Amino acid sequence: MTDRPRPEVADGQPFAGDVVAVVDESVHEAGGGVYYVVGAAVVVDPTRVTAELRALITERSNVVHWAREGPAMRTRMLDVLCESAVAASVQWSATGRRGQIETRARLLTEIATWVYGEGADHLVIESSDTTMNRRDRQTLARHPMATEGGLVFRYDHRSKQEPLLWLADTVASAVGEHLIGKGSGAYERLVEARLLPPL
User: Fold this and answer.
1) What per-residue confidence (pLDDT) applies to 4?
2) Count of structural domains, the chain
3) Which of 5, 21, 38, 76 is the most exposed place for a label (fewest CB within 10 A)?
């Protein structure tokens, strides 16, 4: 996903409540297709958790992205996730490379249902490009729980400059690595912390 700012991205805007869900995806090659993984986490007191996450990168300017991090930062991210998230979820599917758009829509719908059940006030989705962001909005507008006024929670897209998204990236990436046999330590820690059920 890109970190470039886009007009429809809500970076820096206040959250619509104290219970915030964040969603990110991770795509892992597997044979001739991919595992498409959508991870989510719910936090309360997002201001405090954001400050904790920002403290992880006091000596650097770039954001946290699981795929680019070393063991020390990955461990710190898991620490914050296990201490600060009140819930986490993951939806995934094996799909062909050309099936990723439809797969994303289906998995986002499933995650939105979970977010509703967790009582979130606000859902933050990691921003992709303008076309994908529009497709996400169309998917959520068609959600079975949506009314003419939209969903019961507010949602928007934000870039990886939003630290809370780093938590969702951690969930999705940990499960993705487990699925392709790249390593299960991070996934197992989330299961042990009772944030995720065994797959």
Assistant:
1) 47
2) 1
3) 5
Compare 20 and 2 and report the one with higher pLDDT.
Answer: 20
pLDDT digits (tens, 9 = 90+) for 59-80: 777 899 999 999 999 999 999 9
Residue numbers of the domain that contains 154: 19-192
What is d(CA 29, CA 9) in angstroms, rounded to the nearest whole number? 28
Token pair, residue 91, equals 């939806």
Domain assignment of residue 12, yes or no? no
Q: How many residues are listed for the chain in this entry?
A: 199
Distance between CA atoms of residues 125 and 183, nearest Å:
26
**Phi/psi at 148 (5° precision):** -60, -30
In a domain, 5, yes or no: no
Question: What is the CB-side half-sphere exposure of residue 150 using CA atoms within 13 A?
Answer: 9
**pLDDT tens string 127-153:** 999 999 999 999 999 898 887 667 788
Q: What is the dihedral of CA 67, 182, 188, 173, to 10 degrees?
A: 30
**From CA 123, how far away is CA 115, in angstroms rounded?**
8
Query: Confidence class of residue 1 from pLDDT cuts 50, 70 and 90?
Result: very low
Q: What is the pLDDT of residue 147?
A: 75
Q: In CATH, what number is assigned to the domain containing residue 85?
A: 3.30.420.10
Output the furthest CA–CA distance in the chain (Å, rounded): 46
Q: What is the CA radius of gyration of the chain?
A: 16
